[in-house]
Amino acid sequence: MPKENAGKITSMTTIKEIAKLAGVSRSTVSRVLNNDENVSDQTRVKVQTIINKTGYQPSPVARSLISGRTHVLGLVVPMIVSSLFRDPFFSILAQGISSACTLNNYTLMLWLIEPHSEQRIYDNILNNRLIDGLIVSSSKIGDRLIERLIEKKTPLVQVGRNDCPGVSSVDADNIHGAMQAVKHLVSIGRRQIATITGQMELYSGVDRLAGYKRGLVESSLPILDERIAFGNFTEESGYNQTKLLLAKSKFDGLFVASDTMAFSAIQALQEAGLRVPEDVAVVGFDDIPAAAHNHIPLTTVRQPIQKMGSIAAQTLIDQLEQKDTSTARRIILPTELVIRDSTKKSAFSNHYAPDQVQTTT
Amino acid sequence: MPKENAGKITSMTTIKEIAKLAGVSRSTVSRVLNNDENVSDQTRVKVQTIINKTGYQPSPVARSLISGRTHVLGLVVPMIVSSLFRDPFFSILAQGISSACTLNNYTLMLWLIEPHSEQRIYDNILNNRLIDGLIVSSSKIGDRLIERLIEKKTPLVQVGRNDCPGVSSVDADNIHGAMQAVKHLVSIGRRQIATITGQMELYSGVDRLAGYKRGLVESSLPILDERIAFGNFTEESGYNQTKLLLAKSKFDGLFVASDTMAFSAIQALQEAGLRVPEDVAVVGFDDIPAAAHNHIPLTTVRQPIQKMGSIAAQTLIDQLEQKDTSTARRIILPTELVIRDSTKKSAFSNHYAPDQVQTTT
DNA sequence: CTGAAAGCGCTAACAA
DNA sequence: TTGTTAGCGCTTTCAG
Lengths: 361, 361
Description:
Two copies of one chain form a homodimer.
Chain A: H1 15-22, H2 26-33, H3 41-54, H4 60-67, E1 72-78, H5 81-86, H6 89-103, E2 107-113, H7 118-127, E3 133-137, H8 144-151, E4 156-159, E5 168-172, H9 174-187, E6 193-197, H10 203-218, E7 228-230, H11 235-248, E8 253-256, H12 259-271, E9 281-283, E10 300-302, H13 305-320, E11 329-333, E12 336-338, E13 356-359
Helix pairs in contact in A: 1-2, 1-3, 2-3, 6-13, 9-10, 11-12
Chain A binds a DNA duplex through helix 2 and helix 4.
């Protein structure tokens, strides 16, 4: 890097002025700017000197008007209040996406969807012609936004499962993750394993329940309705559904579909006079940092959020730049069981498989 | 709202086509688009009908080329790893900013600064001509980015204290917050109050230390060097500095400049055989959600992060739209003491003053 | 009240 | 290898 563009003249130069200063035409300057071969070395140097001296930067807006591309990616995240305050999911995802953008010379535009102004923001996003493509995170199953984006042919990558043909997606392996959780409980001797599910409007909720069931089946344990309580990922539901479970069934293991719910579930268990993990062993999901803290006997399933972000961004960029054939990609990243209890303090990694990449048409 | 723009033709229409369809000139369409008065009602209706029917949206890029404005705000956040994973600060701030943007028909562009690619991102931001103005959060004292932005005359609002003349800022009242903390400790009978500071490269670190000192002075207690340990907001430093404090002084109260550090401080205290809060009462800062959890005897000082975000955005937008005189504003929002200990479970609000707004030239 | 024409800053044929 | 010309989609004088 040449010793930091010092002595830069802070101005709003245009290509015209550069051309004048260099004594060439605007096209020539443009050629230099775009590394066109058809410029003599002499001219190139002359022009480049002026460009450096003035600190000239071509207007991205003018460029976009011609190219039809802005080099801007959009990120849409629904902000469910509960998760916002506890969960670094969004921060970490954004970090992954942001670094992939930087790497590829893209910038990132952000929409946080608050439930009450959903419609307005949707219109805003849909009519926004400033972005080249969009990453949509954790949308509800059958969300109208996705449909409309598809109609508009917006290049799209979904973070989380998505069944729309033609839409790429990046997801954690929620099914396998939940299976890991159940099997862990089985491995420490639990046989009566209950669950508190997430929202059934989210694939993460649906898939974690599916994984729970499959884990039971593969362990030759029965699936009992009375051991399934339907939460919605909020702390409150974790508490209430635990009370409900306690009322209607007996269990010595509990798989909770999110750490946030798991915290309040543990609280409810303790209030009911049960010891965790002695009487009921609990496994959560997400590995939120509060769990890493002292005295919380919570084993959990971790998803590679940052990686999901960067892969999503990279997938979208590849798609935009046609680096790959325009087939949709379904990428599923492995989860990791993090064992954290009184007896064992350190995290135990268990990568069960290399990244799975499926390609569909 | 007319029954949701149904039957919209999903196309990339231009003003030219609308003009042709409506049988008028492009100028007239433009006038309708911009609510110009000089259009007959008849024509207006005719044109508007076509616009609605086609779902036409004018290209923001073309508009920007003319107006020189993009209606895009930038947000720059340094991503210190430690805070990223524990701290919802960024999420909440972004939420506040985002909602103000939506309200004003702006969109938000995001840069997360990872320490290792700082220089590259700075150049990226500085040369980005896509944004009308920038919100910079928690930058280090004397950060080169701010200087360079000022040179470039980028409209700017700082989240956090900033002394540059001409730069508006929105900050929590860290000084008063720390005073609240100290006075609380005094009020519960502590007289030997130590502190673990934040990073001295951040105003939040500096100001919280200043508030600690002022709190002692106003309580007629001595300021002792041996009771001050310099941390850097990371969990690790909280732990180490507590050990250090324990080695060099005796204290029955501890003000820690962030909850993140406070957690590990408590751990260190407990490992040293001290009871919290009986032997040492601890007050943190930030009110991070993990603190809200069971069994953590941590009183803390809360800052109105979301509000800071929305006010920052609104201030910037006002500045851009010249709604106010172009004087810089320094806005300082009050903090709130949140008492949370074994004896008292519910949060106790203590608004000490209405918003303070200072205006400087 | 409406249309024709010029131009925002840049790129991309097409000539020279 | 270079300059000239047109035009991306829109707004904005300036005539009419």
